[in-house]
Amino acid sequence: MTSFELSFESTKRFHRVAVGFGVTYTSDHSALDAILPDGYATDKSKDAVVMFEVMELRKLPWLRGRGYNTWGVYVANVVCSRTKKPYTGSYMAVLFDSFTDPITTGREELGFSKLWAELPDGLIEGTNRTHTASWFGEEFMRLELSGLVDKPVEEAPAHHPRAWTHPTQTGILHHRYVPTVGQPGQHDASYTTWCPPPPGKPPVIAYQTVEKTDLSKVKLDIFEKSWEELPTLWNVVKGLKSLPRKELLEVAVQTFRGASDLITNQKVE
């Protein structure tokens, strides 16, 4: 293999293109706290907020121009009290990936709790989009966005501070846990990680949303399954299903020219 082939980032042969589909809801503090590890809690002076975000990553240099899809769940306004310096950000509760390689590197290098799921490209029918997550054909999440309208890029949420934390605006909190081999209940690593937001103005090149009068057309379903149906994911899906989704705060479909690889994630404990 030549040195050229090993250095896709520097050759500019491929450019990261990311399309994000996010829906954000108010939730319940106690329910969100119940899925957080010890030493993490939602800020009770702010709204309880949870975001479900689908990403379609394309033209990735490290995959020689290939791509994959993700579906992440983030708890906003989380404060970490385990560290000497308090950190506040969005806690990555889980990140589903549709491809093994980024799951492996994400777990080993970044310390993220990544899981595999079938995440087909979104089904687009006119102004409607449908995204699904399944395990060997057993669907456990479905997001339907209807009545999407184009908006000026300048109005994209990525360009404006939210009233709640957001992964790419205020940073990602996570907890890395590595169990000890042959010693159930013991661990080799258990510490906080922090991924700061990427610098500079977000390179948004397209933005769509659903008008406030049409928010009833947005539908997110989480289907609780049995162990027989989802033997390795049933408890994760049950936890996600338990999170109340009250008021829909934001619907955003944003296309980015470039995306962070989150390599700035670091151990802070």
UniProtKB/TrEMBL annotation:
Signal peptide: none annotated. It comes from the Eukaryota. This is BQ2448_1449 protein. One of its GO terms (molecular function) is lyase activity. Pfam families: ADC.
